[in-house]
Specification:
Elements (H helix, E strand, L loop, with lengths): L17 H26 L5 E2 H11 L14 H10 L4 E3 L7 E3 L15 H8 L5 E6 L4 E6 L8 H12 L4 E4 L4 H14 L3 H10 L5 H9 L3 H24 L24 H8 L13 H11 L4 H20 L2 H4 L13
Antiparallel strand pairs: 1-3, 2-3, 4-5, 4-6
Helix pairs in contact: 1-2, 4-9, 6-7, 7-8, 11-12
C-alpha cells in the first residue's frame, strides 16, 4: 500500500481497546489511499475526480482490499462525508449525479512552493453558508458540521454540537470567505488581464448562472493565466487566514501552512507543458479544449456559435455524462453508439 504524498491530518486513536486501535489505523490508512487516488486521477488529466472513479482507484491500489464497512462506514458516501468533515477532501455537491471530490486547496497550490493546511484551506475557501467550521484549540484541527441540526443527522454531528455547547472556549469559529467576495476577486483578476478579448470573455463568464465554474473553464484555455489565478487566490485566502489568526491571542501558535518538510517535491515541468504555457496567449477561439463541454462553454461566451445551440449541446452532453456515471454495467452494455467513438483519434 502506498503512503500518501499529501499532508493529511492523522486521526487520534484511543489507547484502550485493541480492536478499536486496529480499525482506527486502517481508517487512517484508508484516508491516505483516498488522497493518493484523487491525486492520481487528477494527474491523469481528469478535470475532477468522481466518487465512483475514486472508489475504483482505491480498490485498484489496495488490490480489492478497501471496503468502507471494514473501516466503520455503511456506505462509501459516508466514508467520503467523514473524510470531508475531517478536512481530508472537499466534495462538490452542486454537481448533479455522482459527486466530484478533490484535495482541499489543491488547485491553489499550482506554481507555489508553500501551501495552506487542507483543513484551514477548506474552512476559509468553501463558501457554503450551510456549514459551520470551528478550530479546536487542544487538537490543532478544524471541524465542520451543518449549521442547522437535522432530525436524523449522523451521531458525530450531534456529539460535536454537544461538545461545542459544553466547552465553547475550546472552539474558535472560522468565518469563511463569502461567495460574493471571491467573485469580486475574480472580477478584479479579469480586469487586470492584458489581453482585451480574454478579459471580456472572463467578464462574460462571471455574468453567467454559474460564474465561478465558468470563470475557471475559460481560464483552462490559458495555463499561464490559470496558474496566476491560482496563486492570486492562494495569496488572498492566506491573507484572510492570517487576519483570523491575529484576531485572537489563543491562535498565535497556529501554523497556517503545511510544514515544508511535509510538502511533496515539486517536479520539473516537461518540455511539452512549458511550450504549452508559452503558447497560451493565443486568442480564445483558437485554443483547443480537452473536453467538449469546456469547448462549448468557451464558444458560448466568445459568440463563435449560436448561444442557444451551444448551451443546448453543452447541457445535453453534461446530462448524458451524468446518466452514464450512475448506470450499472448491465445497462451500459445496452447503449448503442457508433463503433468509431470507442477508439481514440
Amino acid at each position: 500500500m502506498t503512503t500518501s504524498s499529501h499532508s493529511v491530518p492523522q486521526a487520534s486513536t484511543p489507547a484502550s481497546n485493541a480492536p478499536s486501535d486496529v480499525q482506527a489505523e486502517e481508517k487512517a490508512a484508508a484516508f491516505n489511499v483516498l488522497a493518493d487516488a484523487i491525486a492520481s486521477l487528477s494527474q491523469a488529466g481528469a478535470s475532477s475526480a468522481t466518487g465512483s472513479a475514486v472508489r475504483l482507484e482505491m480498490g485498484r491500489r489496495t488490490y480489492g482490499g478497501f471496503d468502507p464497512k471494514r473501516v466503520g462506514y455503511k456506505r462509501f458516501r459516508d466514508f467520503l462525508d467523514d473524510a470531508e468533515a475531517r478536512g481530508y477532501i472537499e466534495i462538490d455537491r452542486d454537481r448533479p449525479g455522482d459527486v466530484s471530490v478533490a484535495i482541499p486547496g489543491a488547485t491553489a497550490e499550482a506554481g507555489s512552493t508553500a501551501r495552506m493546511r487542507p483543513d484551514l484551506w477548506k474552512a476559509f475557501a468553501d463558501w457554503n453558508p450551510r456549514t459551520s467550521r470551528f478550530y479546536v484549540l487542544n487538537e490543532d484541527r478544524v471541524v465542520t458540521l451543518p449549521t442547522e441540526p437535522a432530525p436524523l443527522e449522523p451521531n458525530r454531528y450531534a456529539e460535536l454540537r454537544a461538545k461545542i455547547s459544553e466547552n465553547p472556549s475550546d472552539f474558535i469559529e472560522i468565518k469563511p470567505i463569502s461567495r460574493q467576495q471571491q467573485l469580486d476577486w475574480m472580477r478584479d483578476f479579469a480586469l487586470l488581464v492584458t489581453d482585451p478579448e480574454v478579459s471580456r470573455v472572463l467578464a462574460e463568464a462571471l455574468k453567467s448562472e454559474h460564474p465561478a465554474r465558468y470563470f475557471v473553464v475559460v481560464l483552462r484555455s490559458f495555463p499561464n493565466l490559470l496558474n496566476r489565478w491560482h496563486n492570486t487566490l492562494r495569496e488572498r485566502v492566506y491573507a484572510e487566514a492570517l487576519k483570523w489568526r491575529d484576531s485572537d491571542s489563543r491562535l498565535t501558535s497556529v501554523q497556517i501552512n503545511v510544514p515544508l518538510s511535509a510538502q511533496p517535491a515539486v517536479s520539473q515541468q516537461p518540455e511539452e507543458a512549458v511550450a504549452a504555457a508559452r503558447a497560451s496567449n493565443r486568442r480564445v477561439a483558437e485554443v483547443p479544449q480537452k473536453h467538449t463541454h469546456d469547448r462549448e462553454v468557451v464558444q458560448f461566451f466568445t459568440g463563435q456559435t449560436s448561444k442557444s445551440v451551444a448551451y443546448a449541446g453543452a447541457t445535453l452532453r453534461q446530462r448524458l455524462h451524468e446518466a452514464i456515471e450512475r448506470m450499472p454495467e448491465s445497462e451500459l452494455r445496452k447503449i448503442c453508439i457508433p463503433v468509431g467513438y470507442l477508439f481514440e483519434e
